[in-house]
Amino acid sequence: MIRSFAVSTLTLLFSAAAAAQAPAPAAQAPAPAAPAAQSAAPAGDPAKGREKTRMCEGCHGVEGWRTAYPEVYHVPKIGGQHAAYIVQALHEYKNGDRTHPSMRAIAASLSDEDIVNLAAYFSRGGPQTTTASK
C-alpha cells in the first residue's frame, strides 16, 4: 500500500513537472483584421455620389482652403482618396469617434448607401478643385 502511494505520488509529481516545462497550448488567436482603410470598400455608384457632393465641395473642393471653426486648420483634399478610407472616416464622424462638429452633422445626415456612393465618387478624383484666394 505504501509502495502504491509512493508510485502514485511520484507519477503525479513527474506529470506536474512535465506539464510545467511543456509549452502552453497555443490559444486560437483571432486572425489579424486588415485595417478598414486598406480593406475593400463596398462598391458605390459614383454618379449617385456626385449628386450628394454639394455639402462637401464648399470646403473640400477648394485647394488650400482653411477654416476657422472649431479651430484654424487646413481642410484635407478628399478627391483621389481611397474609398475604404472615406467610408471609414464618414462612419467615424457619424458614430462620434471623430469629433469635428461640421463633419459630424454632415455624416449624421448620410445613409450607408450615401456614404459608399460619395466614397466611390471621391476615390475617382472627385470635383475639380479651385484655388482659394488669400
Order of helices and strands: HHHEEEHHHE
Strand content: 5-15%
Q: What's the total count of β strands?
A: 4
Please give the radius of gyration in angstroms. 28 Å
Largest sheet data: 2 strands, parallel
Tell me the number of helical segments per DSSP (H or I, 4 or more residues long): 6
Helix/strand-derived category reads mainly alpha
Q: What is the mean pLDDT?
A: 73
Q: How would you describe this structure to a colleague?
A:
The longest helix has 20 residues, at 2-21. With 134 residues, the protein is mainly alpha-helical. It is built from six helices and four strands; from the N terminus they run αααβββαααβ. The strands form two sheets. The chain has a two-stranded parallel sheet. α4 packs antiparallel against α6.
Relevant terms:
134 residues; mainly alpha; two-stranded parallel ribbon; two-stranded antiparallel ribbon; 4 strands; 49% helix; 6% strand
Describe the structure concisely for a colleague.
This protein has 134 residues and is mainly alpha-helical.
